[in-house]
Design a protein that fits this description.
With about 325 residues, the chain is an alpha/beta fold. It folds into two domains: about 5-125, Rossmann fold (3-Layer(aba) Sandwich); about 130-280, Dihydrodipicolinate Reductase, domain 2 (2-Layer Sandwich). About 35% of the residues lie in helices and about 25% in strands. It contains nine helices and 14 strands. A hairpin with a 5-residue loop joins strand 8 and strand 9 (about 210-220). Helix 1 packs across helix 8 and helix 7 packs across helix 9. The chain binds NADP nicotinamide-adenine-dinucleotide phosphate. NADP nicotinamide-adenine-dinucleotide phosphate binds near residues 10, 34, 71 and 173. NADP nicotinamide-adenine-dinucleotide phosphate binds near residues 11, 12, 34, 73 and 173.
Length: about 325
């Protein structure tokens, strides 16, 4: 099968998806669509894609697609993915899946009713080092997992980037460190412990625009299992994850895109495990596998897990009094 993809949203991440798809050798981007025909044409030229549209619906109506990649800002994910599902098309939806759990529930219900594939594009989940980590946890390499510490902190200099029209700082575009990068740490915790947190606490420092510029999350998974997580646009810190088990520790440097892990166990020298490089190609291959095998969800990133992540982020935002424009409640 050579999958025919369409892309909705012609911004920064779209070329990375294009390159990832090229690397798989399993498909092509046949069309890109934007709210702005100019943006779509620029991307078309840059990537050498056959068609560009200034309307999402026109692309979906006119092109014969196997799947659509939703690469818009968070606030649009719900309506963009809904439009695709209503056109009978499978979707890979960038993180954060939606603005909130209510939108996620509606989208998931629609995908299930339509019997169509739908997945949050949690690309880090499919990288070789993450796959290796899951194997090590499953085989008990460090015993029972007890703790996770993970941070994703990138410095966004105070400039045009901290203005409300920038996606990351914009309440209208559902920005903030939590939905943009904190989501990776929360998804990582769910993967490491294999369940949803029973108690959720955290704190946030707000940007003047009204979204969190720095935030911390303390998630309790019951029976002494705990994750301490952080995300920030304000300071650059090592993007590490440390998983502590009853018999050892696994250190993951730069956990979102590492190619190695270190296992530290009592009375043994630290063991460095080299893995393949990270990239979008692994999640794309997973979408293709699911489509080939008739799966409507990926067992590695199921929709119930995505919903759990959205609920955790809703709880945190409600504790901080952080609402996006037009959100109910
Ligand atoms: N950048 C990264 O490193 C990265 C990495 C992984 C995942 N992601 C995820 O990918 C998605 C897109 O991120 P991105 O960095 O590509 O975003 P972006 O370049 O800021 O914008 C992507 C698209 O969102 C829409 N958009 C952005 N700002 C808008 C505004 N002010 N008004 C109206 N529409 C606006 C536009 O869609 P149209 O062109 O259709 O009008 C734009 O092309 C997000 O969910 C993000 O979390 C990003």
């Amino acid at each position: 099968m050579s999958a025919r993809w369409g892309i909705i949203g012609c911004g920064l991440i779209a070329p990375k998806f294009f390159q990832g798809l090229e690397t798989t050798g399993e498909g092509t981007v046949v069309a890109v669509a934007s709210k702005s025909i100019l943006r779509a044409k620029l991307l078309q030229k840059k990537l050498g894609v056959p068609k560009a549209y200034g309307s999402y619906a026109k692309m979906l109506d006119r092109e014969k697609l196997d799947a659509v990649y939703i690469a818009t800002s968070h606030n649009y994910h719900f309506e963009n993915a809904k439009l695709c599902l209503e056109h009978g098309l499978p979707v890979l939806v960038e993180k954060a899946f939606t603005r909130n759990a209510a939108e996620a529930e509606e989208l998931i219900a629609l995908a299930r009713t339509q019997n169509l594939f739908c997945m949050e594009a949690m690309w880090t989940r499919f990288n070789p080092a993450t796959t290796k980590l899951r194997e090590l946890i499953a085989e008990g390499a460090i015993g029972e997992i007890k703790r996770l510490k993970a941070e994703f902190c990138v410095k966004m200099p105070p400039s045009i980037k901290t203005m409300p029209w920038n996606r990351m700082y914009s309440p209208r575009l559902a920005g903030g460190a939590l939905l943009d990068i904190g989501v990776y740490t929360i998804a990582y915790a769910g993967m490491v412990f294999g369940c949803v947190p029973t108690r959720i606490g955290g704190s946030a420092k707000m940007a003047w625009t009204g979204v969190d510029k720095t935030s911390e999350y303390h998630l309790d998974f019951g029976q002494g299992l705990r994750a301490d997580l952080a995300a920030s646009f304000v300071e650059e810190r090592p993007r590490f994850a440390v998983i502590t088990g009853t018999h050892g520790i696994i250190r993951v440097p730069y956990f979102s895109r590492t190619d190695k892990l270190t296992i530290i166990r009592a009375s043994r020298a630290p063991e460095i495990i080299k893995c393949g490089p990270s990239g979008f190609e692994y999640e794309i291959r997973e979408v293709h596998r699911c489509l080939r095998e008739g799966l409507t969800e990926s067992p590695s990133m199921p929709l119930d897990e995505t919903l759990g992540i959205m609920r955790t982020m809703d709880t945190l935002r409600s504790q901080w009094g952080m609402k996006y424009p037009g959100e109910a409640g």
